[in-house]
Records
---
Amino acid sequence: TKRPPPLRKASKRLTCHKRYKIQKKIREHHRKVRKEAKKRGRKKPKKDPGVPSAAPFKEELLREAEQRKKRLEELKQKQKLNRQKEHEKRRKLEAKKNAAKIKENVEEKESSSKSKAKTNKLLDKNSKKSFCRELRKVRRFNYFYII
């Protein structure tokens, strides 16, 4: 059976006029984007000014802030551990699936190898070696030779 010829990919060649036109459009687009960004202005994240030293409950506020930070860190750690556990579960499930597939493949190969061995034995019956083997058996059991 003949294979059909592979489909050809479209050529990437362009006329210079078209290529320069595309580059120009790209430049204009980038220019517009930069202009819009300038109009909107930069938004820097505001820095935390901290607690003024004249505040009456400065130590308490600092402790609370520290506790908040610790809670956030603990939450992040818990989430990270949960993600890792989920990942391990998935990996174990995949490993079990792969093991089952491998077992099936091995069983299939074994059954196919057994059937191949049977066919090989059948084929061997017709070979010269098997003929000689059969002849020797006949000679052993018979007292006379057929010439």
---
Amino acid sequence: DTSTHDNYLSNYLLQLCLYLGRRDFVDHVERIDPVDGVLKIDPSALNGRKVWVQLACAFRYGREDLDVIGVSFRKDIWIKRIQMYPFEGTKPPNTPMQDALLKKVGDQGHPFTFDIPVHLPCSVSLQPAPEDAGKPCGVDYEVKAYIANEEDETDEKVEKKDTCRLIIRKIQYAPNELAAGPKTDLNKQFITADKPIHVEASMEKELYYHGDPIPIKVKVNNETSKVVKKIKISIHQITDVLLYSSDKYHKCVLNEEFGDQINANSTFEKEYRVTPLLASNKEKRGLALDGKLKDEDTNLASSTILLPNMDKQMQGLVVSYKIKVTLMMGGGLLGSLTLRLASLHFIPNVSVKRHYLLLSLMTFPLLLKKTFPLIMPEHNYLTKKILLSNLVIKQQ
């Protein structure tokens, strides 16, 4: 009977429903956007049990199927739980997003808010190889609601139908105060020449948004009899793995050569513009990315910002970038200059025409696949097309 199956599916899905207005929460260096959402609870399905919602920040270094003899490759960096039903404690004021969600969820909606400490790391994942399975290594944040008898459910079996979870991202935003761009120079003296060759490389600023071209100014004063055949610019990502291991990954994310020739006893000055993109590095295993959500694109990982007195070990992964400028001569390399680069995430401004349509919930992919109805005043079904048509995205 199809109607009986649909009623069962409705009860199965709606005993716990997790609603968030977004999945990206911004680290503004000195403060972090609160994680505000609504949990819909059907008390008739609890059978005297309680409901909790938790936010956990965890570091994963190794596949889950490698967890043997009690040795786990996952470490919880930070975790916080809130008892939602029956509620205990003091409820903070609702945010505008929570008010909008509660109007649509109804009396069974229960708002919750988590404040993420500023010392916690941003979401970072290491790009897996095509044949790798399971969750990628890195730092992730997960909101989970569950029905249980006790707060810490590790001592009892919680069935999958009594749990809903959603991965979110804590992403780095550019700080307001920017330092001057890096500058470095090199004098190279040859045994067979009386005078040296002088090279200088500089950038106007130290911070660039993902996808922005990076201008690099190169100046050369060649007082020797040698000829520079071409100039090579490369950008390298350095990822330090600090928990469980002392690994360090060096990945070249851009390597371009320019056929500019610098003759003997001459000067040269030119600005080069290069753009490192994840699209050009899809096959590189171990490349650090901004935490990836399922079926969504991401970027190269933002540089890690370490505040004073911050425990570096708690970051799990520390990401930095460097630029190399190399002059190529007929006999090989002349010398390389290294510039440090900060590459941070740019957050577009997203305004929502109808707040209740911007729902990130654990069952959303299932709703699309099985066309399970989520009743709303204007629409009978929440579809991907409807969701996208009600978003206005403006990039600053």
---
Amino acid sequence: MSSTLLRVCPSELKIPYEVKRQRSCCMQLINKTDKYVAFKVKTTNPRKYSVRHTCGILLPRSSCSVTVTMQAPRDMQLDHHCKDKFLVQSAVARDGATMRDLVPELFTRAPGRLIEEFKLRVVYIAANPPSPVPEEAEEEDASPRSEVTMGYEAKVSSAFDAVSDSITVLLCSIKNNIMPFLVTMCSFASQASRCMDNSGAKPSCTKGASVVPTLVGEKVSTREENQKRLQQNMELLREAGSPQQGFSVMFVLLVFMSSVFIGHLMKHIKV
């Protein structure tokens, strides 16, 4: 029998079946008329299902959703066969009707009163469909790869940390030792250049010449200390597992700059 008041979708309630877990589904009620329509939802097993919006009034050409929640089942059913059913009753209400007008007599059959009924059966569906590939085989295949990958990543991470620490130590050593040395040498070069420019002021040159042995001795001792610290830093880099051999580009560049600067300075001193 076709319904003239309400359209109920879907035609059956498909609820996922999972042990010890609640599952829900929805049905849609659509008012096909230009009148106010009252509805009521019933079930053959009210202890097993809870219904939200068991009754209500639909405005003309409006719709609403009804949620059906199944209580968590305790046992597993192999065939997923269910005999439970739902019944949706609908009747014409007066214009402007509200929830206060929903009385039991509204759904009682009487002469001249149109009451329609729509039945829905409950169908259980699998909550977790089986995978085409067995999970155990996937885990066995994935375990060795994951262990190898994790071991490689751990080695790479430890080597990277060791190299980073060594580079940090080297940069700190350069900042604390080489930079003051270069600043001192620049200061000494500026004093020597001023001394040579002022050739008429012999006492100033004599004073600068007396300072030369002291500064040269200090720079030699400082250079020896810097070489020792750089050698220690290189040993730390080798212990960190760096596969490269020889001096780093930064060290060669610093030695080259220091040699050029010292050669230029000695040239000025001889002049």
---
Amino acid sequence: MVPFPAQGHLNQLLHLALNLSSHGLAVHYAAFAPHIQQAKSRLQGWPDSALDNLHFHNLPIPSFSCPPPDPNSTISFPLHLQPLFDASELVLPHIASLLHSLSATSRRIVVIFDRFVSFAAREAATLPNAESYCFQCVPISQDLVFLGHDGPTADLLQSHGLTIPSLDGCITEDFFAMMIGHYKMSGLEYSGILMNTCRFIEGEFIDLLAQQPDFIGKRHFAIGPLNPTTPVRANGQRHLSLEWLDDQPSRDWDRQNEILLAGEIEEAIKRVMVYDSGDEIKQRTKKLGEDVMQAAADGGSSNIELLGFIAHVTRR
């Protein structure tokens, strides 16, 4: 496992590592030591003992500038982390050393790399007993846009009454350029793609992705959601936050000014929690949650595809 050094990426690959480890696979997780500790400390839904089954590799941290966060930035992006993102590729020699070491003692090694660390796939391609898989942690509909297939994606979104969301104010030009660079580099150097989504949610987009030239002939596995769908505390009980939500009344006119800051947010909450039309929304949301949990449960579509991936990479 080679994650991108940002929490949302570290966390998802750690969940995947634990899922694979629970099926008896030897899983190695390579990242900077502070990020490994960060991912471990923020893990939810797994007993602490599950982490003992993983092999963690602390990669040396290269030298890079570390500017402070800019609280006055006009863009909702952690600009101060860009030097870290740029420096992450400097660990390639250490990734190469780890892969060669594992290759020498294994029948097959499987490299699962975050889309934004595609250099790991290039190194895996040099080994005779290695194959690599790209891990996709953003929605496939968004991935298609990043890959330049916004035309057919827009048509499919429009058929569901949706539009392509704008990235204005979300990411910087530097990050976008880095992202596109990794998308291009990983083009033909990996065997398939693992997606933290399920076919119930994005089945049409997954099928559209499989039809694109860059993905024809590659294997696709929709294996999400990877995180446990029923968060629990270490003692096996449901998380306190869920118990607190269960105790809240479904309708409250008394506290909305205390917790709502904008008129649009207030109106949206009213539609769901107060107005009669909210009952239909809540029923749809409840059904959606049930279907997603079913996908991840034994015999569900994501569970079947995860087992299919395991069977494929452990084939003789």
